Amino acid sequence: MLRDSCTSVLEHALVEFFFATGCRVGDIHKLDRSAIDWQRGCVNVIGKGNKEREVYFGSKARIWLQRYLNHRGDKDAALFVTERKPHRISIHQIEYIFNRIANRSDLQTKISPHKLRHTLATVLLNQGAPLVAVQSILGHEKPETTQLYASLSGTVRQQAYQRYFVQ
């Protein structure tokens, strides 16, 4: 499992935050730590097309983010920074960290921040979240884009069929 392959506080914080928020790598790269609303468990991101949206994170992401920020010991404004000479982490560095984690895991598929975005969409839909809510969380203009991201499990498909097919 991906979480089990994380070896640093930074890796844990990145994996949990990407999974919880469904953000694009560019969204997270631009975030400052002052943007985090700890009370509400959310952050405003500037997404694709320079559009602002509010995204949310749960307790696991909160715990790992707080551990990471407490562990850092620097004053850089960026939410995520490089480990040496702290400055804003680049998109390339985030992708490299995910490759490093993936190489340590037993997962057969390629893992990336974007894959966690797809995973969040699938999890939310499989738990019964309305498509329009998932669309909003991911910042998609069109529901068709969200549908491409998500694949319903066989169980959920069968339950939907049994619920809506009347004979």
UniProtKB/TrEMBL annotation:
Entry GO MF terms: DNA binding
Matching Pfam families: Phage_integrase (PF00589)
Subcellular location: Cytoplasm
Keyword Methyltransferase: no
Domain Tyr recombinase: 1-162
Database matches in InterPro entries: DNA_brk_join_enz, Integrase-like_cat_sf, Integrase_catalytic, Tyrosine_recombinase_XerCD
GO cellular component assignments: cytoplasm
Keywords per UniProt: DNA integration, DNA recombination
Broad class of the protein's primary localization: cytoplasm
GO aspect biological process, one term: DNA recombination
Protein name (record): Integrase
Organism the protein comes from: Ferroacidibacillus organovorans
